Amino acid sequence: GCGVFDSNGQAAAIEGFITDITDRKQAEQTKEHLLKELRTKNEELESIVFIASHDLRSPLVNIRGFAGELEKSIEALKAVLNEATLGPQIRDKVQTILNEDIPESLYFIKNSSQKVERLLNGLLRLSRIGTAQIKPTVIDTTALVSDILGGLHFIIRENHIDIAIEGPLPRCRGDVTLVTQVFENLIDNAIKYRRAGHPCRIRIRGREENGQCIYQIEDNGIGIAPEHLDKVFEIFHQLRPGSGGEGLGLTIVRRILDRQDGQIVIASDVEKGTTVSVTLPAAV
Description:
By secondary structure, the chain is of the alpha+beta class.
């Protein structure tokens, strides 16, 4: 604004513009309120997941423990049966129960308990990501990925997988433990979802652009159908049920990246392959 003066040089009035920012302030307050509610609900959800996962572990240990005791009891019964005097029909029936029926039931009990344990471990990892303290540091991404590939040397060699890092990867900034989880998961997926009877080829590359590091993991695997692309980040969603995973890998990856100002984008063609692009802040 500016002053308006009379002929004697005295201030007579003040001219100016007034901007009503009531709507903007209300919008900011509403946004802050919604963010606070979202944080509270996320904390509640993480707490529920952690408690449920922890409390379910105890009965799971009992199930697996008593399944093992039943296996020992079967062996003891077999020893008793060998010394007992039984008619042929009764002996055959008892042997069928001890050698086939009960072991089959125990097999399903043990397999199911292992699956539950994997799910619980995945849920615990997911809940801990939301509360884990982020310790950002400059990451030598080339060394990090090379170490991951070193740990996978056996499976890479046994399955004749052609996997390579194309050129040095740009250094990013992030929590090294969490970023390692991201690359481990994505490389494991590229290996797991390879095409049967087809040479597996995986390439890892990266570039720095506008203060961001963009990394790509490209494979020639089974690919993802368009109708599944929007669902791959959903909790418990499995691209190929029965593949051994718990359907939490990409959920965890996205959660990790969300907490570190990163993002993930997936492009894929069925029976041609998948390219996963991960963005993280570049090292300063």
